[in-house]
User: Fold Phosphotransferase from Lupinus angustifolius.
Amino acid sequence: MGKVAIGAAVVTAAAVSAAVALVVRHRMRCSAKWARVIAILKEFEGKCETPIAKLRQVGDAMDVEMHAGLASEGGSKLKMLISYVDNLPTGDEEGLYYALDLGGTNFRALRVHLGGKDKGVIGQEFEEVSIPPHLMIGTADGLFDFIASALAKFVASEPDEYHLPNGRQRELGFTFSFPVRQTSISSGSLIRWTKGFNIEDLVGEDVVGELTKSMEKIGLDMRVAALVNDTIGTLAGGKFHNQDVVAAVILGTGTNAAYVEHSHAIPKWQGLHPKSGDMVINTEWGNFGSTHLPLTEYDQALDAESLNPGEQIFEKLISGMYLGDIVRRVLLKMAEEADFFGDTVPPKLRVPFILRTPDMSAMHHDTSPDLKVVGNKLKDILEISNTSVKVRKVVVEICDIVAYRGARLAAGGILGILKKIGRDTVKAGENSKSVVALDGGLFEHYSKFRTCLESTIHELLGDEAAETIAIEHSNDGSGIGAALLAASHSQYLGIES
Assistant:
């Protein structure tokens, strides 16, 4: 009996010893894997750093590229497109104007009633219309006949008090959010389609001419007074409410900036200089590139796998289309190299753009003690269950790094524009204010992004200059802004109503 007991004791001790060794090895493996997670995080954080000195270099590079783009066509990655908008709203505009906003699978028709000085926008109405899919790949006549017909119905609903005097033509601002080579304030030829449209017979044609032809067919007496994009519309909307507005920036799914330039500072301008002496420039700053931009392996992979490799690098760092996917790519590396979410890589984590920026924002703003929102987003979107608070904290840190880098780089870009127009410093004896109008879902809804952008601009300018610069939200530039530009380019300007 004694031997058996001793043997059993020996076997039990050996089993315990093996189990302990197994636990120790497991812990060591887990510890090594966690160390790898932290190493990936810290390396990413280091590569994304945007110290003030680097942001000033980004601003300087933006300024240099703006000069080059204004000097000659193709002189810079920044297109610096001449918009032919030489009169921005003064706030005195009055009367009834229409806008047509075409930029995707829906279009909007708007009616805006302006009241003149101190009254602003008295009333506005709009109607949204879905474009049937077959018209998006059909003919120019098919698309514009459909739009003109919907526009005519909308005009027919015009309240009696809005009716125009006899003989007065209705005027329209047309926001056309596709690449266009503009040839005047009210004409421009389509360069190429995007966003699922492919109407071959419209490429190279004047989009205003095609719309006008369709309106004339059905007897709709309306003149397109201004052809614009949404960034210039945002500038117009901002200027209408505040005459100190000098530039506009869109930070949404994509990004762009426009600003007011002196016409004499545009060497490539061939026409007569406008009476105002000003010209709005559409920078197309999403295509800005510089060696000073802090690119990581994740950005390079995203760019290589994109539809436009080597293009829109700035946009891929700062806009809502891409931020969530950069977060996903970092999480994927952690899952592949350090079993961040367990022994297998969650399949959904390999799906490009599955993690959208609004989801990233929700996780970044999670203030619950156990980061419940983060846990739910990982489960609902990526099908990753039972994550620890420790894991969730790392996810929030990645969101933090990506959002703050984007916001600070956007601030560096804005510094470049202010530098180009000499508004980045306070000049002796001058007390002028400069307002930058901002719009876009990223700026409007991602509050940590917005707060970081604003504080970084203050940091870059310094206390004294920052006192002269303001960031203001300018809503619905693609709609109301277009109507305002129709008003400021009306054929009836200076004629008594």
Q: What stands out?
A: Residues 84-228 form a domain with the Nucleotidyltransferase; domain 5 fold (CATH 3.30.420.40). The mean pLDDT is 91. The first strand starts at residue 81 and ends at 82.
